[in-house]
Amino acid sequence: MEVYLDNNATTMVDPIVFEEMKPFFCETYGNPNSLHRFGAGTHPKMMEALDYLYTGINADDEDDIIITSNATESINTVIKGVWVDEILNGNKNHIVTSEVEHPAVTAACRFLEAQGVSVTYLPVNENGVIEANTVKENIKDDTALVSIMWANNETGKLFPIEEIGKICKEANVLFHSDATQAIGKVLVDVQKANLDFMSFSAHKFHGPKGVGGTYIKKGVKLTPLLHGGEQMGGKRAGTVDVASMVGMGYAMHLATNEMALAYEDNHVRKLRDRLENAILELPETLVIGGTENRTPNTTLISIRGVEGESMLWDLNQKGIGASTGSACASEDLEANPVMNAFGSDSELAHTGVRFSLSRFNTQEQIDYAIEVIVNAVKRLRNLSSSYAYAPKSHESGL
Ligand SMILES: Cc1ncc(COP(=O)(O)O)c(CN[C@@H](CS)C(=O)O)c1O
């Protein structure tokens, strides 16, 4: 049996989405900027896709959503655009973000630090969350941007975006959230969150890889990252990948409607809890960041005495796909920086395994995964020279 439990890395394109995309390869294949019928034929479905995107994040009709290649491009567009507008051409020189952001945020911020910008990386608290008050305490007169993720990709922890949005509005500071791991898992409302910018990627909610979006609130200036043609009103040059844009719009429609979010919060959450609770019955295991206030599909579990990479190899041999943390850091055998930030000791930082489920997982798959995981832990702990578990009288030895 094959069981895919790495949906925070990427998801399967929903077959229904794939059907929506097909016509734009060999039938309606014109360039949307061409004036003839071959180009104009793409417009109805592109407009429908935009409608789905606006509805999915509750954007106002006058706001902008520009189509990018992925969340990384969207994030760089915001951070570097604000740098140009508010720092190079303004009187600001400070950005507030967090220690547990995705590298797309932290690396872009480190690039700006190399250009002389001051960046504050906020720590998470003992519950693995960035506190709104901590953001407030770190906003200065020259703060150009606050950028805090909506949901952490490794732990699933949800951050107080609406509270932070109120703080930024009162302080008149631009606010961006990387919502890549929130869309399709929890309700994302850009207006309630008082966001000026938001980034997302279609392949996290059963859309195609290679397409994402940047939300820009009406009236907020943002210098483009890419210059060239007049696509997206000059806000993002380059011919739009029509099929992917249509796919992202439809995936947003399927993933963010009321029934879909209820399914995530019930069915997917129940499967995640079933898997997590079975692993927590093993001695010396714990959920990094704690179990409260998380996306319904994610668990990052430390299993003392079991190297994350060794566990992944065992799982892969049995048809199960998971990760030790974000896929983009999977080749890096250094201790997981996010786990370090969440306060786990150095050994724990090497023993984390991330399981991230989706609406396509079944209870049968989860029960199989539990059996494989428990057997893998037994095998790997028995092999471990450094792990010696002395069971208390009421615990079975492993
Ligand atoms: C919160 C967050 N923000 C940005 C990105 C980047 O998405 P792209 O579509 O690759 O550009 C990701 C992708 N995180 C994957 C791959 S590193 C993970 O395994 O966690 C993310 O989780």
UniProtKB/TrEMBL annotation:
Gene3D superfamilies according to UniProt: Aspartate Aminotransferase, domain 1 (3.90.1150.10), Type I PLP-dependent aspartate aminotransferase-like (Major domain) (3.40.640.10)
This protein's UniProt keywords: Iron, Iron-sulfur, Metal-binding, Pyridoxal phosphate, Transferase
Protein origin, superkingdom: Bacteria
Pfam families: Aminotran_5
Catalytic activity annotation: (sulfur carrier)-H + L-cysteine = (sulfur carrier)-SH + L-alanine
Annotated Aminotransferase class V domain residues: 3-368
Cofactor(s) demanded: pyridoxal 5'-phosphate
Annotated InterPro entries: Aminotrans_V_dom, Cys_deSase_NifS_proteobacteria, Cysteine_dSase, PyrdxlP-dep_Trfase, PyrdxlP-dep_Trfase_major, PyrdxlP-dep_Trfase_small
PANTHER family per UniProt: CYSTEINE DESULFURASE, CYSTEINE DESULFURYLASE FAMILY MEMBER
Family: Belongs to the class-V pyridoxal-phosphate-dependent aminotransferase family. NifS/IscS subfamily.
Protein name as annotated: Cysteine desulfurase, NifS family
Gene (name only): nifS
